[in-house]
Design a protein that fits this description.
Blueprint (H helix, E strand, L loop, with lengths): L2 H10 L4 E4 L4 E5 L4 H11 L7 E3 L3 H7 L6 H9 L4 E6 L15 E5 L5 H10 L2 E5 L16 H6 L2 E2 L11 E4 L6 E4 L5 H10 L1
Parallel strand pairs: 1-7, 3-5, 4-8
Antiparallel strand pairs: 1-2, 2-6, 3-6, 4-5, 8-9
Helix pairs in contact: 1-5
Length: 198
C-alpha cells in the first residue's frame, strides 16, 4: 500500500495526517468529523482558532460548501492554487466546528501541492488542515521540526523534504471590502486588485 493510500485510510478512520503544502507542513483531518478537528486543536494547544478547508481544486471546495458556487468559485479559480487562505461567507454554517465563534464564515485553501499530497486530496477530498505546530511556535518547514507529540499522534506522515516555511496569506472576503488578516506568502496586493475588478 502506498503512503497516500495509507493516509486516506487514516483519514477515513477519523485519524490525523501530516501533509506537505506549498508553504509549511500541515496537520489534517476529515472536516466532517468534529471529534477529529477537536483533536487537532488539542494537539496544537488551542481552543477557538479557525481551521481551513483545504482541497486539491476549487470544485472540491464547492462540493463541501455548495454556496461557494458562482461568484466565489470564480474568484477561487482565478486565485488558486496558491499560497492564500480565503475567508468566505458560509451562510448555511456548514462544518461550523472549523470556525468556532465565526460560524457564518469559512476559510478555504487550494495550495500548489507536492505530488503525494495532491494525490491524497484527489482521492479523499477536502480536509481540515492547519500548520503542524504547537500554537504560537514556528511553522514547520521539515518533518523534523514538527513537535514529537504531533508526529506521534499522526497516523500517516507524507514527507516532501524542506518546504518554504512561510505560512499562507489570509484574506477575509466576508465583509464589504476584503481585509488581509495575516500577511504571509504570495502577493496579497494582486489578490486585492483581482477582487476589486472581478
Amino acid at each position: 500500500m502506498s503512503a497516500g493510500s495509507d493516509a486516506v485510510a487514516v483519514l477515513e478512520a477519523g485519524g490525523l495526517v501530516v501533509l506537505p503544502t506549498d508553504t509549511v507542513y500541515g496537520l489534517c483531518a476529515d472536516p466532517r468529523s468534529a471529534a477529529a478537528v477537536a483533536r487537532i486543536n488539542e494537539l496544537k494547544g488551542r481552543t477557538k482558532q479557525p481551521i481551513a478547508l483545504v482541497a486539491a481544486s476549487p470544485p472540491a471546495l464547492v462540493e463541501c460548501v455548495p454556496e461557494l458556487a458562482g461568484r466565489w468559485q470564480r474568484l477561487l479559480e482565478a486565485l488558486l492554487p496558491g499560497p492564500y487562505t480565503l475567508v468566505l461567507p458560509n451562510p448555511e454554517r456548514r462544518l461550523a466546528w472549523l470556525s468556532p465563534g465565526h460560524e457564518a464564515t469559512i476559510g478555504v485553501r487550494v495550495p500548489q501541492l507536492p505530488r503525494q499530497a495532491r494525490e491524497l486530496l484527489e482521492q479523499f477530498g477536502a480536509v481540515a488542515a492547519t500548520s503542524a505546530n504547537r500554537h504560537g511556535e514556528p511553522d514547520p518547514r521539515t518533518i523534523e521540526q514538527i513537535p514529537v507529540e504531533i508526529r506521534a499522534a499522526a497516523g500517516a506522515l507524507l514527507d516532501a523534504g524542506e518546504l518554504p516555511g512561510t505560512a499562507s496569506t489570509v484574506i477575509d472576503f466576508s465583509g464589504a471590502e476584503p481585509v488581509v488578516l495575516r500577511l504571509g506568502a504570495g502577493d496579497p496586493e494582486r489578490v486585492l486588485e483581482l477582487a476589486r475588478t472581478s
